[in-house]
C-alpha cells in the first residue's frame, strides 16, 4: 500500500513538473514573439505595394510611430497594376483596428539609410475604421528607393569630402612644419632675428614719418598745417570758381564761344570754309592745289631745284663772277678797296661839293 502511494505521488509530481515546464515554455514563446498580452486576440490586415523594398518577414508594424504588430507574410499578388504587385499581410491586435481609420496610409520606412525596414501606418481622418481582414491603402515605395539612392549618394559625397579634408589637413600640416623650421618668408619672419629687426626698423621709420606729418615740418607737414598755404589754395579755388562763373555768364572770348550763338555760327562757318579749302586742295584747285596734285608742276619745280643746285655747285667751285667773289680773296680785296675808295669820295663830296661842281659860263 505504501509503495502504491509513493508511485502516485511520483506520477503527480512528474505531471505537475511537465505542466509547469509547458507553461514556462509558452511564456517564453510569447515573450520571444513580442506578445505581451497572452489573452489578446490577433487579426490580419493587408496592403499592396509596388516593391517590397527589402522589407523582411517579421518586421515591425507601427501606427504613427508606435509598434502595434508585425509583418506576417510577403507575397506576390499576381495583379497587373504596377502599384499592387506585392501583397503584405500584417498581424495586429484586433482592439487596435478602432485606431486605424479607413483612409490611413501604409508605407515602408527606415530609421536611417541603412536601418531595418518596417511598416508605418499614418492615421487618416475618416470616421470609419479598418475591419478585420481589410485593406489599408499604401504609399508608393519608389520614393523610398529614391531616398535610399540619395542616401548612398550623400555617403559617397561625404567620403569624398572627408578625403579632401584629410588632404587639406596634410597640406596645412606640411606648411606649418615648414614655417616652424624657418623655411619660406613666413618661417624666416618667425625665426630670423635679422628680418625681425628690419621689420622693426621699417616700423620705426613709418612712425617717424607719421610724426613728421603730424608736425608742421617738411612739405607735407606744411601742406597740412600751414594756414597761409591753405588760404592761398582757397584763393586759387575762388579765382577758378570766378572764371568758371564768367564762362557760364558768357564773359570773355571763351565765354562768348560757349554762350554766344552768333560766334558759334561764325566758328562753324569758318570751319566749313576751311573744310572747303582743304577739299579744294585735295581736288587740285588753285595754285596750292596744283602744287599738291599736278605732276607737271611738280616736275617743273623739281627741274628748277635741280638747276638751282647746279648753279650753287658752280658758285661753290668758284665759277663765274659770284663764284670768284666767294672763293677768290684778291677779287674780294679789290671789291672791298673800290668800295672803300667810293666811300671816301662820297665823304669828300659831302664836305666840299664846290670842288666837284664847277659851272663855267661862256658868252660868244
Features:
12 helices; alpha+beta; 364 residues; 6 strands; 61% helix
- State which percent range the strand residues make up: 5-15%
Query: What is the radius of gyration computed over CA atoms, rounded to a whole number of angstroms?
Result: 63 Å
The structure class reads alpha+beta
Q: What strand line-up does the widest sheet have?
A: 1-4-3-2-6-5
Provide a count of the helices. Answer: 12
How helical, in percent, are the residues? 55-70%
Shape call: elongated
For the secondary structure, the number of strands is 6
Rounded average pLDDT = 77
Distance between the termini: 238 Å
Low-confidence runs (pLDDT<50, min 5 residues)? Answer: none
Major sheet size, sense and barrel closure: 6 strands, mixed
The sequence of SSEs as H and E is: HEEEEEEHHHHHHHHHHH
What does this structure look like?
With 364 residues, this protein is of the alpha+beta class. Among the domains are: 40-140; 227-257; 307-353, no CATH class. It is built from 12 helices and 6 strands. It has a 6-stranded mixed sheet, with no helix packed on it. Strand 5 and strand 6 form a beta hairpin. The longest helix is centred in the middle third of the chain and has 39 residues, at 142-180. The termini are far apart. The mean pLDDT is 77.
Task: Tell me briefly what this model is.
This protein is an alpha+beta fold and 364 residues long.
How is the secondary structure organized here?
Elements (H helix, E strand, L loop, with lengths): L1 H31 L9 E8 L10 E4 L2 E11 L9 E8 L11 E6 L6 E6 L19 H39 L3 H8 L1 H22 L3 H8 L1 H23 L2 H8 L1 H23 L2 H8 L1 H22 L3 H8 L1 H23 L13
Parallel strand pairs: 2-6
Antiparallel strand pairs: 1-4, 2-3, 3-4, 5-6
Helix pairs in contact: 6-7, 8-9
Amino acid at each position: 500500500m505504501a509503495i502504491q502511494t509513493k508511485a502516485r505521488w511520483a506520477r503527480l509530481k512528474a505531471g505537475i513538473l511537465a505542466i509547469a515546464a509547458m507553461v514556462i515554455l509558452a511564456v517564453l514563446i510569447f515573450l520571444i514573439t513580442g506578445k505581451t498580452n497572452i489573452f489578446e486576440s490577433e487579426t490580419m490586415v493587408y496592403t499592396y505595394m509596388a516593391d517590397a523594398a527589402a522589407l523582411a518577414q517579421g518586421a515591425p508594424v507601427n501606427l504613427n510611430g508606435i509598434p502595434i504588430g508585425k509583418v506576417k507574410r510577403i507575397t506576390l499578388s499576381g495583379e497587373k497594376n504596377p502599384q499592387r504587385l506585392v501583397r503584405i499581410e500584417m498581424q495586429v491586435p484586433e482592439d487596435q483596428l478602432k485606431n486605424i481609420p479607413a483612409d490611413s496610409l501604409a508605407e515602408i520606412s527606415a530609421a536611417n539609410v541603412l536601418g531595418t525596414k518596417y511598416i508605418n501606418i499614418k492615421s487618416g481622418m475618416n470616421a470609419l475604421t479598418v475591419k478585420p481582414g481589410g485593406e489599408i491603402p499604401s504609399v508608393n515605395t519608389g520614393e523610398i528607393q529614391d531616398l535610399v539612392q540619395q542616401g548612398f549618394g550623400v555617403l559617397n559625397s561625404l567620403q569624398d569630402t572627408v578625403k579632401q579634408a584629410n588632404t587639406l589637413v596634410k597640406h596645412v600640416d606640411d606648411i606649418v612644419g615648414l614655417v616652424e623650421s624657418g623655411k619660406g618668408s613666413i618661417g624666416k619672419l618667425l625665426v630670423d632675428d635679422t628680418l625681425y629687426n628690419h621689420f622693426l626698423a621699417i616700423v620705426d621709420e613709418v612712425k617717424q614719418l607719421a610724426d613728421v606729418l603730424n608736425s608742421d615740418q617738411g612739405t607735407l607737414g606744411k601742406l597740412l598745417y600751414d594756414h597761409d598755404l591753405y588760404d592761398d589754395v582757397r584763393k586759387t579755388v575762388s579765382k577758378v570758381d570766378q572764371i568758371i562763373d564768367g564762362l557760364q555768364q558768357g564773359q570773355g572770348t571763351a565765354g562768348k564761344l560757349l554762350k554766344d550763338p552768333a560766334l558759334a555760327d561764325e566758328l562753324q562757318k569758318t570751319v566749313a570754309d576751311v573744310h572747303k579749302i582743304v577739299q579744294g586742295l585735295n581736288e587740285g584747285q588753285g595754285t596750292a592745289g596744283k602744287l599738291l596734285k599736278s605732276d607737271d608742276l611738280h616736275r617743273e619745280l623739281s627741274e628748277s631745284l635741280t638747276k638751282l643746285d647746279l648753279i650753287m655747285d658752280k658758285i661753290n667751285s668758284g665759277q663765274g663772277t659770284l663764284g670768284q667773289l666767294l672763293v677768290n680773296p684778291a677779287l674780294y680785296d679789290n671789291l672791298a678797296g673800290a668800295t672803300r675808295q667810293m666811300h671816301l669820295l662820297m665823304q669828300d663830296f659831302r664836305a666840299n661839293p664846290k670842288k666837284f661842281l664847277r659851272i663855267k659860263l661862256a658868252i660868244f
